[in-house]
Input
Amino acid sequence: MITSLLVVCTGNICRSPLGAAWFRHEMPGVKVASAGLGALVGQPADPHAVAVAEVNGVDLADHRARQITLEMIHDADLVLTMEQAQRDQILKIAPWSTGKVWRIGHHARQDVHDPYQRGHQAFEIAYHAISSLGRDWLPLAKDA
Output
């Protein structure tokens, strides 16, 4: 059972905010946050991400990018990355987190590709991948 989830991507303006918003909607009893490994600190979510979120009933209006910290990793019960390389990067800076850091597409052996600067359709594809792959993690929040 998890009570806190950290969703991670690179810049924290595209995939991880979309993922965090989706998980917040699907896991109402879980504290969900997002961060980036190379965050564009303080920036709002990409306008395409905001638009895709809105169409899908989730809100990114208040999102501001944050850089991942060791404290965030420590405090989360589960850390989900968008790519295997991001998981590997986290494990290099926090080797003690092995059991709680996973790629969102771990079960499907798949990454969620970065839609940054690739147009609106790329964001729709990323959101669909996040929502599809994210379903595998929902049982961890039951009774949270």
In short: The chain has a mean pLDDT of 96. The chain has one domain: 4-138. The first helix runs from residue 15 to 26. The first strand starts at residue 4 and ends at 9.
